[in-house]
Amino acid sequence: CCSILSVWGIIMLVILGIFLFTHSVAFAEDLAIDEKLPKIEFLTEINRKYTQAAYNCWIAACLYVVTLAVSVHQIY
Description:
By secondary structure, the protein is mainly alpha-helical. It has 2 helices and no strands. It has one domain. It has helices spanning 2-21, 39-75. Helix 1 (2-21) packs antiparallel against helix 2. The chain starts with a helix and ends with a helix.
């Protein structure tokens, strides 16, 4: 069961990270950004938040790889 969930987590988080890294507009509302910033600072902050969220997804996907390895090791 953990193996199946790990595979799904890896796939989902890698794809989510790709979408965030390409600044998909669908995730704009999920970023905590102060809307009162000047335009230049606002755009810089958006870029930083998208990139950080993408890295967080990829780190979580790596943790799922570890979970998958432990699960597969226990099976065999």
